[in-house]
Amino acid sequence: MHDADCIFCKIIAGQIPSRKVYEDEEIFAFHDIHPSAPVHFLMVPKVHLPSLVQAQPAQAALLGRMLLLAPQLAQEQGCAPYPEGGCRLMINTGTQGGQEVDHLHVHVLAGPRP
Ligand code: AMP
Ligand code: ZN
After folding, report:
1. What's the Cα-to-Cα distance from 35 to each of 14, 26, 39, 54, rounded to whole Å?
2. Model confidence over 48-76: pLDDT tens digits?
3. CATH at residue 27
4. pTM beyond cutoff 0.90
5. Is residue 49 part of a domain?
6. How far apart are CA 102 and CA 4, in angstroms?
7. Which has the closest alpha carbon to 23: 81, 69, 77, 91?
8. Is 105 among the catalytic positions?
């Protein structure tokens, strides 16, 4: 459920400060500390899952809820509406997939591209 050595578990528990975007009983979202777009936040399940690979069929609804929530939160954070605006979702998975933090997270990026 919770990994004592995981930075995102510590953020969820409030042990490490973050700029919170959203929270419910299953999901936590917070601004990325090194944003690579005008809007850039991370959505994480509160349960510690190292990556998408460990997600189970029982978590399908949770993953679906995260996907449905992402564009809503992006718009609340200043993303222009679809289709002119829109957002990009990214789930880095594994070392070669560019994953640096081993707690499943969805990057949500939006805003004008440079
Ligand atoms: P990834 O490469 O997909 O594992 O992305 C990890 C992301 O977590 C990076 O974009 C980091 O900037 C971000 N990150 C790392 N530590 C923190 C933190 N304490 N608060 C917010 N974002 C963080
Ligand atoms: Zn964790």
Report:
1. 21, 24, 7, 26
2. 999 999 999 999 999 999 999 999 999 99
3. 3.30.428.10
4. yes
5. yes
6. 12
7. 69
8. yes
